[in-house]
Input
Amino acid sequence: MPKPPVTPRGRQRLPTAGSDEKRERILKAAETLFDRNGYASTTMEQIVQALGVTKPFVYYYFRNKQEIFETLCWAPTQACFTVLDFAADDPRPAHEKAVDGLQRLIAATIAHYPAAFFPYREPQAFSPAYLKASRTLTRQFYRQFCELLEQGRASGHFDFHETRIAAQAACSLPGFLYNWYRPAGRLGTAEMVAELTTLASRVLGLRQVPARASAARVRKAPAASPPKKTPARRSRPAAESPGTA
Output
């Protein structure tokens, strides 16, 4: 796993009593401003004013605005692109791991709103070091995901043609949440995660029963027995019919 591209560069380098809480206060205030105003239109002065503190308070923890922004973005980046780091002894089949990874990716994206959407909205704001670390995580994720997809296709649980295209198409659903997602929407978080996971699974052509297994069952099914013939009833002569004289 790549090292975080941003580390404390101000005077505060090691955590101290209360330092984590203060850093979180700064990050939360900055996140609100970046979400509302955008990166370019947010200044360190505005962050200081939103906190009601002095500039040295903020500069003790962060060197500049970009470091705050990248720190905010790294947490969701790491959370989203490590969802496939399953234990080596995880016994589940590939298709179950792939769908679980999609669900966790979607859940992590929503959980880190709005910072998870900043990389899509502000791609120009990042340093080369951040972009390199982010690309490393992304490549690792897609390598793992594509391997699971190919295994799931081989077992008959997925139906797609191009592995990489299928992977990117399925993952584009959480990626494009930044265009329309709002926490106060009609669906709750759990419902939204479930709905998007279902849609992403359909992109992969998820089958509940593998196609090959279904075909095998059809081939092995015993032929239906022909219906038994019952002897035809002989009609009585008209003279013996009920109601005759």
